[in-house]
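2024-03-11 09:14:02 DEBUG pipeline.ingest accepted 1 chain
2024-03-11 09:14:02 DEBUG pipeline.ingest length=496
2024-03-11 09:14:03 DEBUG pipeline.predict start
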Amino acid sequence: MKLALKEVLLGTALAILVFLAVRGFDITPLILIAAMVLVLKFTVDNRSQSSRFDVIERKGVSTTIPQVAFSDIGGQDVAKREFKEALDFIRLDQEVRALGIRPLKGILLVGPPGTGKTLMAKAAANYTNSVFIAASGSQFVEMYAGVGAKRVRQLFKKAYSEAEKAGKQAAIIFIDEIDVLGAKRGKNVSHMEYDQTLNELLTQIDGITVNQNIRLLVVGATNRADLLDSALLRPGRFDRIVKVDLPDRRGRLQILKIHAKGKPLADDVDLDKVAQSTFGFSGAHLESIMNEAAIQALRCRRQQITNEDLREAVEKVMLGERLERTPTEQERIRIAYHEAGHAVISEKVNAGSVASVTIVSRGNALGYMRQHEEDDRYLYTKDELLGRIQVCMAGAMAEELVFGQRSTGSLGDIEQAEKIAKKVIYSGLSDLGVVSSELPTMTLSRTINQIIQEQECIVREYLAANVNKLHILAEVLLEQEKLSGQELRRILHQSA
C-alpha cells in the first residue's frame, strides 16, 4: 500500500514538472531541491540501517548471568561433559596462564533443532560467571557495504564493555544460526558483503589473547556445519566442535522429568513408557508433549495429568491436531481395513510393536498406526528392513484383499517403502551387492520395484490366511475409532 502511494506521488510530481516545463517555467531550482531531498533521505536511511543493530544488540545483551544451569538440561550428558571441559579454561584462568595454554577462542555447538544448543550456551555463562550476549547470524547480513563487518566489531566491543560495567572477568558471545554469517566464501559472487562480514569475524576471533583482562569466548550454534567456511573451523578459532544430538531413551526420560516438575501427574503415568515411545524426538518435542498433556487435562477439567493425556499429547506432537473432516461411511470402512492391515503385519514382524491404531484423522493422515520399540535402534539387518517394508505395504494389501483394489491412501506408505528399499540397496544388502552412489537410475528403479513386489507377495499371502483378524479389527475400529497396543494384541490373541 505504501509502495503504491509512493509511486502515485512520484508520478504526480514528474507530471507537474513536465507541465511546468512545457508552460515555460524554469524548473532547475525544483530539480536541485528534489536532488537534495533524495540525498538527505538516503543518508538518514543508511544511518538507521547501521544503527538498527545497536537496538537488537541491547536486547540481546544481559549483564546478569542467565538463570540456566547444566542441571536444567537433560539428555546431553556427553555434550555437557565435553562443553564444561572446554569452559574450565575460563574458570581456571590462573592455571591456564601459568602453563602458557592458548585459550579456547570458540566452541561450535552442532545438532538438530530443538536439542538445547541455546540452553547450553546460557548454562555456560552461568557456569563461568560471564556476561552473556546473544545474536543471530541473520543480524549481520545487510545489503549496504561494510555494515555487517561494522556490526561484528560492535558486538565484540560491546562484550568487553558490558563485562567491565558488570564487573565480570569473562564474557560469552553466542551466535545462533552461525551458518548464515560463516557460510563458505565465494558462494555469493554477486554480493561480497557476506565475505567481508565473515572476514571481520575471523579477525575479531584472532584478536582474542590470553593476556586480556576480560576473557572472551565465542559460542556458535548451527544444524548445518557442512555450510561453514573451513577458515572458521580451523584450530585457533572454533577449537572445539560439540555434538548436541537427539537424546537416547535415558536422556528422553531425564528431559521428561525436568519438564514434569510443577505438573501434577496421576498414579497411572509412566514417563519411562513415554520415553520409550518417542524415539527421534528432540528436547523441544518432549517439552511440548508435557505442555500439551497439561492442556489436555485442563480441557477435560482434570486436576492431574493422566496417561491418556500423555498418549494424546504424543500423537498431537507427532501428527498434529485432530481434524474436523468427516470421511464417508465407505471411506471409514476402507480406512479401518487399511490400518488393521498395518497393525496385523506389524505384530507379525515384531510382536508388541504397535503402540496404538486409530481411524481418527490427524494432520495429513486419515488414520494411522503408531509403533514403538523396546530399545532405540541405530542398526538394522536386511530382514528387519524388509519387515518394515512389509508393514508399509500392508495397508494397501488389506484394501486390495477386501475391496479388490487399492486407493490413494497408500501414497505415503509407498514413499516410505521406497526410502527403506533405497537403504537396503545402498547398504549393500540387495542382490546387487555393494553399489556405487552413482547407480544408474533404471537399475535403481528396477531393484526398488523388485524388493517391494517381493514383500507385497509375502504380505498378501499372510493377510489372506488371516483375513478373519482383519475383519475383527476393522469392526472394532469402526465402533471405537481407536485401540491401544494392549487392546489390539488381546483381540488378535482371541481371534487366533
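2024-03-11 09:14:41 DEBUG pipeline.report Residues 73 and 287 are 11 Å apart (CA to CA).
2024-03-11 09:14:41 DEBUG pipeline.predict end
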